[in-house]
Amino acid sequence: MLLSNLPQAPTDWAAQLASFPLWDLRLDSLHGTTHPLTGGWLVLFGHDLGARHLQQLAPLLALEGIPACLYPVARIAGVPLLLIGTDSFSTVLADIIRSETWTIDICHLAALPSLTEPGLLVMDMDSTAIQMECIDEIARLAGVGEQVAAVTAAAMQGKLEFADSLRSRVALLAGAPVSILDDVAVNMPWMPGLKLMVDTLKQAGWTLAIASGGFTRFAGELQGALGLDAIFANELAVADGKLTGQVAGAIVDAQAKARVLSQLAAECGIAPSQTVAVGDGANDLKMMAVAGLGIAIHAKPLVRAQASACLDHHDLEGVICLLGARACADTRWSGSTPRLS
């Protein structure tokens, strides 16, 4: 079947593809098969997902000589999704896909965690679980917003060592009333999809934690609201109702985040392949590197270049898409499509 003959919307493909459980994806066509490929994965998802994206992808696979097969269409977290199995994972293909312009999110992965098995997700907080950098907002209310925001941006881009940058930013907050923290906490904008992601993973029996270079006051707020299993963040020192300009205790930096993920997985008996790290900044890279799957969300260029998966068009519902995609490999065309939330 020629790709050009497919209806644009994947939800309309069932009638054309009902004769085979799987379809080999070639340069410009699909060919029915009963032989699945599981050496690597391509996950394509987005409200704009259509046949044109297969037409964009197929030549890239052909150029690299990578066999691929299409699994049943899914709809996960309300988002249309295609899972494509490959005979192997290719770092070259992953880099090529990153360099292309897409109107959807597409990831080439060596392995996919499964929601049918116990798992662990550790996420950053600022600009990941929430749509703000808490220290920047504290600084704005304290009258030093511009100075702190500039340092925050440089640190998240990997231009400054995180611990030193945090100390220098916190020092600028000395003398600010501790009540500022309450003002920030009650106005934290959650990242869209946060509650859906947490509820979906908790229902699947997963462990969820925050590992943040931000502060316990705000991570604790999220833990209480969402029922997270653990939080790891920095503690702002306070004296006489005011911030002292110091961080109390050891700083949660990039290495600490990676250690948190590894220790939680060991304590909970979770296989490394079932661990997921989600973040946006340079101080999340080590945590992503030790996870079975590292997901960058609305990330800085340095992080996008190194993360296994990138969410550019989706918020945290995109995490559910990636973790629910594996179910498509166990589904056959039956006139209905697999769904999750």
TrEMBL record:
<comment type="pathway">
    <text>Amino-acid biosynthesis; L-serine biosynthesis; L-serine from 3-phospho-D-glycerate: step 3/3.</text>
</comment>
<keyword id="KW-0479">Metal-binding</keyword>
<dbReference type="InterPro" id="IPR050582">
    <property type="entry name" value="HAD-like_SerB"/>
</dbReference>
<feature type="active site" description="Nucleophile">
    <location>
        <position position="124"/>
    </location>
</feature>
<dbReference type="InterPro" id="IPR036412">
    <property type="entry name" value="HAD-like_sf"/>
</dbReference>
<dbReference type="InterPro" id="IPR004469">
    <property type="entry name" value="PSP"/>
</dbReference>
<keyword id="KW-0718">Serine biosynthesis</keyword>
<comment type="similarity">
    <text>Belongs to the HAD-like hydrolase superfamily. SerB family.</text>
</comment>
<keyword id="KW-0378">Hydrolase</keyword>
<keyword id="KW-0460">Magnesium</keyword>
<keyword id="KW-0028">Amino-acid biosynthesis</keyword>
<dbReference type="InterPro" id="IPR023214">
    <property type="entry name" value="HAD_sf"/>
</dbReference>
<dbReference type="GO" id="GO:0006564">
    <property type="term" value="P:L-serine biosynthetic process"/>
</dbReference>
<dbReference type="GO" id="GO:0036424">
    <property type="term" value="F:L-phosphoserine phosphatase activity"/>
</dbReference>
<dbReference type="Pfam" id="PF00702">
    <property type="entry name" value="Hydrolase"/>
</dbReference>
<feature type="active site" description="Proton donor">
    <location>
        <position position="126"/>
    </location>
</feature>
<dbReference type="GO" id="GO:0005737">
    <property type="term" value="C:cytoplasm"/>
</dbReference>
<dbReference type="GO" id="GO:0000287">
    <property type="term" value="F:magnesium ion binding"/>
</dbReference>
<protein>
    <recommendedName>
        <fullName>Phosphoserine phosphatase</fullName>
        <ecNumber>3.1.3.3</ecNumber>
    </recommendedName>
</protein>
